[in-house]
Specification:
The protein is an all-alpha fold. It is built from two helices and no strands. The chain has one domain. One of its GO terms (cellular component) is cell division site.
Length: 87
């Protein structure tokens, strides 16, 4: 009877040890994945900041005015060229 009880305790201990090893292994894998994802997130945040800065630069009204004048040949109309239409 005692040998049977000891055998059950040994088997339960081995099963529990295997469960602990499996849980720790899974924890390490998930932690490694979390670290990679956090690094990717940080890189994306840096890139997003760069893109916001670039967008702000390209969207400045003086830049738009300069491009409109140089590339498209646009200019403000003269006062004589403005026609007001009333309903």
């Amino acid at each position: 009877m005692t040998r049977f009880l000891i055998a059950i305790i040994v088997v339960a201990t081995v099963i529990t040890a295997i469960g602990v090893v499996h849980a720790r292994h899974q924890h390490r894998q998930l932690f490694s994945q979390l670290t990679r994802l956090e690094n990717a997130r940080d890189e994306l945040n840096i890139e997003f900041g760069r893109l916001q800065l670039e967008q702000a630069t390209w969207a400045e009204s003086t830049r738009i005015d300069q491009v409109a004048r140089e590339r498209l040949g646009m200019k403000f109309p003269e006062t004589a060229d403005i026609v007001v239409i009333r309903p």
